[in-house]
Design brief:
single chain, 434 residues, mainly alpha, 17 helices, 75% helix, 0% strand, elongated
Length: 434
């Protein structure tokens, strides 16, 4: 390329030297032509150099173009080496875009929790269902029999003769424990009172509930636990009577026939009870009829789906209402019982533990009722209730050593047999109705 350019230059010089006789104007024109030709030759040489550079670069690396080569001269851009695509091993919940090693990409997903853990029942994950049910049933027996024995000990043996105040403590305890169990432990969903009408219905149930519990506690001052439980076993008889009088509900002839031994047995037990007390007997009958009336009225008042409350929510509302109902009665009938209790506690601190323990066990009666129904059925709770009276009677005889007679035990047994027959007749009647 350089030789061709030199040859072209020499030719131009020879040409300019061959015509020396031209005038000044022609000389200027010739000089301009020479400059133009020289400029064209310089541009041609520059283009040849660029072409040679492009050809050399293309042969060395086929990727960059001349413009890319120029930009590479201006900017130093690092070219990362290509790496082999990684094979990600991921699971649900992991993010493969995270800057971590391949070993860290595998996340350990915990196993699906069991039913007990999902329901916040960690005890259920430790104990088997059968063992858990057995523990609940034993707790139910312990609380139901325990509150009877503690009430009897406080009111009759220890000498704490304030059954209304004791019942008010039970109601306050149920209110506090129910609030904690529903709002903090969340054992059941919280339900609100939706209307004033529903409020007054619950208030009416609270009044009946007060009458039943207070009457039962008063009867324990005068009657032994065994006889108290024998009278309490006649609840189905009063339930059938109130259901007929209030709701005009008629049972099958088999159901009414099963109630005959219930009444006959309590008559035998009453005639042969060595520690029979008329006032205590009448008050205990009132307590039993109050329980039956409450069950009938509750089914009558809280009938709509919107007004129905869970048993634990119903206790949450009934307990403080019952305490307010009992407050004026305990102040009027039992006097300044709070000051008397404080004075007793100064001389004997054991009374404080007795009252707190008694009130706590009273709440456990309601809690275990709910747990037994949840883990078994309402029918199982009814059967356990029938057996509870007999167990409580035997335990009380062993602890308090109250005298019994063969006729009294026979009457109690006849009553219990009638209760079992009544339960079976009710179950068959419901099965035939469906």
């Amino acid at each position: 390329m350089e030789e061709e350019a030199a040859e072209a230059t020499r030719s131009a010089e020879a040409t300019s030297g061959a015509e020396p006789t031209r005038g000044g104007g022609d000389d200027q024109s010739s000089d301009g032509d020479d400059q133009s030709r020289a400029a064209r030759q310089r541009r041609r040489r520059r283009g040849d150099r660029l072409s040679a550079t492009t050809t050399t670069t293309t042969t060395a690396s086929p990727s960059p173009s001349p413009s890319v080569s120029l930009s590479r001269l201006c900017f130093s851009v690092p070219i990362l080496p290509m790496v082999e695509a990684q094979s990600w091993t991921t699971r649900r919940g992991s993010n493969p875009r995270l800057d971590s090693s391949a070993a860290d990409q595998v996340l350990d997903i915990p196993a699906t929790p069991t039913d007990g853990v999902r329901n916040n029942s960690h005890i259920g994950s430790i104990l088997s269902p059968n063992i858990l049910t057995a523990v609940i049933v034993l707790s139910w027996y312990f609380s139901n029999i325990g509150v009877l024995l503690l009430n009897k000990y406080l009111l009759s043996i220890y000498g704490y003769k304030y059954p209304i105040f004791l019942t008010m403590l039970h109601m306050l305890s149920c209110a506090v424990y129910s609030f904690a169990a529903i709002n903090w432990l969340e054992i059941v969903p919280f339900q609100q009172i939706l209307s004033r009408r529903q409020f007054f219905k619950i208030f009416a149930l609270s009044a009946i509930f007060c009458f039943s519990v207070v009457s039962g506690n008063i009867s324990l001052r005068y009657l032994p636990v065994s006889f108290n439980q024998a009278i309490g076993s006649t609840t189905p008889f009063f339930t059938a009577i109130f259901a007929f009088l209030i709701t005009f509900k008629k049972e099958s002839p088999q159901v009414y026939l099963a109630l005959v031994p219930v009444v006959f047995g309590i008559v035998l037990a009453s005639n042969s009870e060595p520690l029979f007390h008329l006032f205590g007997f009448l008050v205990c009958i009132g307590s039993t009829s109050g329980r039956a009336l409450k069950s009938v009225v509750q089914g009558l008042l809280l009938t709509s789906e919107a007004e129905k409350l869970h048993s634990m929510n119903l206790l949450l509302y009934m307990a403080p209402m019952a305490a307010l109902i009992l407050l004026p009665f305990t102040l009027y009938i039992e006097g300044n019982v709070l000051a008397i209790t404080i004075e007793k506690s100064r001389n004997d601190s054991f009374i404080v533990f007795l009252l707190i323990g008694n009130a706590t066990v009273a709440y456990l009666v309601n809690l275990t009722n709910f747990l037994v129904t949840k883990h078994t059925s309402a029918l199982t709770l009814q059967v356990l209730g029938n057996a509870k009276a007999a167990v409580a009677a035997v335990v009380s005889i062993l602890i308090f050593r109250n005298p019994v007679t063969v006729m009294g035990m026979t009457g109690f047994g006849v009553t219990m047999m009638g209760v079992v027959l009544y339960s079976e007749a009710k179950k068959r009647s419901k099965a035939m109705a469906h």
